[in-house]
Amino acid sequence: MVSDKKLVLEQVDAAELTPGEFSARVRRCVEVYSARTVVVDSLNGYQATMPAEHALTLHMHELLQYLNRQGATTILTVAQHGLVGDMKAPVDITYLADGDTATVF
Fold it and tell me: Options 3.40.640.10, 2.60.40.10, 3.40.50.300, 1.25.40.10; which CATH number does 14-104 get?
């Protein structure tokens, strides 16, 4: 599938890309390869590039809106902290998932 360009895998070092560069790479995959499914694994790495959680949420929301308009299904993974009781996610997942067609794992 990779050699037929039906599957594009890109390993990203979060420390080397700005949020804008990351979004541009995702958009390029949708526009050049007509990607219809986008998987971001994980939001924790993406958050590491951002100095504040608020900025991460806005950037990711904008990217998800774009992907939604393009008809792409988006799957996001996130590592949660805590096994029982008060489990915490590093981002406001409800906000991201409610406004778009994102699936969050």
Answer: 3.40.50.300
Determine the Cα–Cα distance for residues 31 and 9; give it in Å rounded to an integer. Answer: 15
Q: How far apart are CA 73 and CA 58, in angstroms?
A: 19
- pTM here? 0.78
What is the pLDDT tens value at each position of the chain, 105 positions in all? 989 888 999 888 777 877 888 899 999 999 999 999 999 888 877 777 666 556 777 888 889 889 988 989 888 887 776 666 666 665 666 656 655 555 655
